[in-house]
Amino acid sequence: MSNNKRKAVIKNRNKKGKLSFNKTTIDYPIFCFKYLTIKAKGDFKFYYNFILRLKQLSELGWKQIQTSPKHSFGTEKIPVNKIKKDMPKFVTPDVENLIVFRASGDNRPFLGLRNGNIFHIIFIEEKFGDIYDHS
Prior knowledge:
Elements: H1 3-11, E1 30-32, H2 44-60, H3 62-67, E2 76-79, E3 97-102, E4 109-115, E5 118-124
Parallel strand pairs: 1-5
Antiparallel strand pairs: 2-3, 3-4, 4-5
């Protein structure tokens, strides 16, 4: 890290030592895994590609994601009542849909909820049909 970059990071620290950001300048997804429900089946190549996809999505920003086709880097909605798995308790009864992203180039999805720039990942579908029926 160059000295200029290091100084910029230090200037952005608040009194408690945490980094602070200007909310108006962040227009990219921040992925949260706190509520992820997963039982991995061992397709480690899939998870490697998933991490690469998250990086690509973070580089695009929300505006580009919203205009991208759903089978590319865009999203679609799926009704909560179509989900085969139990919802985490933080998902309130008024939530009607989850947002679906493609986790890899072969269209396997990951699903969650957006709150501002934070996208809470709830499900990752390692095997087609585990989370919802694709028809």
